[in-house]
Amino acid sequence: MAKKQSSEVTRDLLRAHDLRPTRQRMALAKLLFPKPGHKQHVTADALFAQATKAKTGVSLATVYNTLHQFTEAGLLREVSVSSATYFDTNTSPHHHVLDEDTGMLTDLKPGRLALTGIPRPPRGSQVTSVDVIVRMRKKA
Questions:
Q1: pTM (2 d.p.)
Q2: In a domain, 29, yes or no
């Protein structure tokens, strides 16, 4: 059986998440998921810069809309850090490290952080996730 082409894999990924594979979604999905298992954190502005460089012809508004659609469909995880919002292709439960000098957000390796004493939610509510961001910067 022949190896699937990149466009076909991307189209299948979108359809598997109940998203119509429009030209814009296809172009942005190829940038976000260039190969299976590839993990990255992107801001809308950074993805827009990549899309512009790749001559995709998508607007910044389309990038924002698509990132939010992908998040709602479960393809991305939204991580808000101070004034920036990152979109993480790793949707499994995990925590992050933020380099405050560069603004780079990376996954914290599993097992490097232990959480205890997560508060009990009020009656009728449930904890859906716990997001920890460890902030680091170079010593002065």
A1: 0.80
A2: yes
Domain assignment present for 35: yes
Give residue 91's Cα distance to chain centre: 7
Residue 116 lies in a domain: no
Q: Beta strand pairing status for 77-81 and 104-107?
A: unpaired
Task: Answer for the pair 52, 8: CB distance below 8 angstroms, yes or no.
Answer: no
Whether residue 108 contacts residue 70, with contact meaning beta carbons closer than 8 Å, is answered with no
* Dist. CA 60–CA 57, nearest whole Å: 10
∠ CA 24-81-60 to the nearest 5 degrees?
A: 25
- Asked whether the beta carbons of 70 and 80 are under 8 A apart, the reply is no
What is the number of structural domains in the chain? 1
CATH number assigned to the domain comprising residue 39:
1.10.10.10
Instruction: Report the alpha-carbon distance of residue 127 to residue 119 in Å, rounded.
Output: 9
- 91-137 pLDDT, tens per residue? 988 999 999 899 899 999 888 888 888 888 999 999 888 889 999 99
CA atoms within 13 A of residue 32's CA, in its CB half-sphere = 29
Q: Is 15 a domain residue? A: yes
